[in-house]
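Weekly puzzle thread! Below is a chain. First person to post its structure in token form gets bragging rights.
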Amino acid sequence: MNTYKIVKYTSEHFQIWNNFVANAKNATFLFHRDFVEYHADRFEDFSLLVFDEKDNLKGILPANISNNKLYSHQGLTYGGIVIDSTLKIEKFISIYSAILHFLNENNIEQIDFKLLPSFYCSQPSEELKYALFLSEAKLTRRDALVTIDLQSHFKIDSNRVEGVKRAEKLGLEIKKEIGFADFWKDVLIPNLNAKHEAKPVHSLAEIQSLQSKFPKNIAQYNVYQNDQIIAGTTLFIDKKTVHVQYISAIGDKNQHGALDYLFHHLITEEFANYSYFDFGISNENQGKNINKGLQYWKETFGARTFCQDFYEVETKNFVKLNQVFL
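Winning reply:
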């Protein structure tokens, strides 16, 4: 196997890390250090860089550590070992083995991976999934992502179109906004508290700060009736993929059709030339249950299922990778 040097991330790696992310085949803006570190107070960072014998950066792993267990990264929606398009699987497995070996030598016995969904990759990139199989990783969770392939012949159901017509009759107006305060304070926070006794993952200050650093990647769309906000969505946009980070509406969404109107516009007009529109999950209970009504609403826009897998692997299993290639 090839020899690689594993280095723990420090601030001196900021630029080389971000340059690598920008050119990787399986990375999004969430892996940029400015995003990874927005909640640095909540997580103990243990991100890793992988260098070859000539000190060329060949891979990175956004990660944090908790109770002597490594996670790829608990503060991010997805993770894994980030590589560029030139890396072939033999070298990838060497890199993966080197990471496990490094962690094992540092008395970290386990690493949890939540894999990057395939539609975020610019090229096929399931090397990690195969390496996890080789190292006898355990599948611990599987979420169902409800996603539209925007360049396929997807069909929006008639009941969503009826919602659009109701919204048009009521004179609802869609606006792309610069700020997030109206949506957070008047719609999102009250709804999450009333329905789930929960709060948004991002505070208002955090989402505003992130948007200032990633203005092309984070967008807010609101729906208004008589200049009063009644619905909205916060989108994370990466290359040709759109992810719905937050969605919420005041009152009966079936009565005013605000969300039907909003997402019909986003799918058929605003992002029609993109590749994928990801509504995210409708799962609960660690992937074992599905919110039936929410799933149905997403699917009636033409969305169908991709899976996101979660694995745990013992770092001592690096030894199982020594005799892979014949």
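Puzzle host: Confirmed. Bonus trivia for everyone else. Residues 178 and 215 are 9 Å apart (CA to CA).
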